Amino acid sequence: MSVQSLTHLIPAYARDIAVNLTNLAEETLLTEQQKWGTFLACAHAVGVAEVIQHIEAISAAILSDEAADAARSAAAIMAMNNVYYRSLHLMHNQEYASLRASLRMNVLANPGVPKLDYELWSLAVSAINGCGLCLDSHEKVLRGHGMSNVQVQAALKIAAVVNAISSVIRAESARQGPLSLTNIPHAAQ
Question: Residue limits of the Carboxymuconolactone decarboxylase-like domain (predicted)?
């Protein structure tokens, strides 16, 4: 599978999303591992089967097995952390913020890839999951380790586009039944 095969799943009314996907797949602000790990973590965070399958296939040629597992683990651990920490942030009773979380998250100490990459993936997933506290925390670490604001922005754009693709495909699936290349009016490439 290729990026083009994923864009073919996007209907014509969402052409902008297909163009953004193509542009982000070609961007050079991030390393290939950072970029495709972000795509993979975001696909797993959103959880739409067709998007996961396409991005898994595309990223398999770029990411080592260890890096792919790390990207998946970023989606998994942030699924937990984003709900917990977003809740603490939203609650008026600050007593909960002083309590020990007691949630296992050992993967954060040794994710199997450079810490910077893992932080980037965690930031992107946190954007999808809407946790401002986690976004601020991961962005601070990234910027503290020399990542530029445009590199952080690139990860946020990947998160936004993967989320949009997933939303469109989920909606089309609900509207038409399962998607295939034969029943979608393709976006102009």
Answer: 95-170
